[in-house]
Amino acid sequence: MKIAHQIGHEINPFTFGKKVVISTISAATILILTGCSTTGGVEPMVNNSASQSANSSSAAQSAQTNLPSVSAEKGKAPTVGKPSGTAPTELVKNDIFVGSGKTAQANSNVTAHYVLMSWKSGEVLQSSWDGGQAPTFPLSGVIQGWQLGIPGMKEGGRRLLVIPPALGYGEQGGGPIGPNETLIFVVDLVKVS
Q1: CA 183, CA 123: separation in Å to the nearest integer?
Q2: Alpha-carbon dihedral of residues 148, 93, 67, 57, nearest 10 degrees?
Q3: On the CB side of 119, how many CA atoms lie within 13 Å of its CA?
Q4: What share of the chain is helix, strand, coil (3-state, %, to 5)?
């Protein structure tokens, strides 16, 4: 995963909780911040799609939430439109296209490209596509939003995740991710092992 951010901060979807461990994941000595789950395991996924999220939220909130658009060109970095309205308060996952390969499980190691955007600013904070190589990591060591949002995804697929603060970086934030920030990830699952 990237991550020596241009302003000297490291951003990583793989960090959560209060414990932080620095780990090398590639020959390019790319550093990732990883953490330990405080829940003792993976909980069931909150929603199966963006439409279910809208259905489970109050009518007022769903009417005010516009998820970002995501391009569907396979093998290329996705273009992500800015979201608008009130950020969802529950995990949202929406397959942009479904892969045909192996299915990710909660205990899988995955190789995935991603784009990270802030709901609040609508700006891309980080993209693994910029570094060219997709990182590999265990799902058990990432933020809870990924632990709940990636299982069930197939190799070759692209998925939109909207992760509320409680399943991301929480009240503390981290680097350019502010406190209580809702995160948007577009994930391309390259390999499951």
Answers
A1: 11
A2: -80
A3: 24
A4: 15, 30, 55
pLDDT tens, 23-64?
223 322 222 223 323 333 333 333 333 333 333 333 444 447
Tell me which H or E stretch contains 60: helix 59-64
SS3 letters for 15-54?
Answer: CCCCCCEEEECCCCCCEEEECCCCCCCCCCCCCCCHHHHH
- Taking the C-alpha atoms of residue 27 and residue 161, their distance in angstroms, rounded to an integer, is 28
Q: What is the pLDDT of residue 12?
A: 52
**Mean pLDDT of all residues in 174-178:** 86
Of 62 and 183, the one with more pLDDT: 183
**DSSP assignment letter at 56:** H
Between 158 and 2, the higher pLDDT residue:
158
- The string of DSSP codes covering 134-157 is --EEEGGGS-HHHHHHSTT-BTT-
Domains and CATH numbers, the chain: 21-192 (3.10.50.40)
Reported as a single tens digit per residue, the pLDDT across 59-80 is 444 447 899 999 999 999 999 9
List Cα–Cα distances, 11 to 67, 92, 124, 173, in angstroms.
22, 21, 12, 10
Picking from 127, 150, 126, the residue whose alpha carbon sits closest to that of residue 138 is: 150
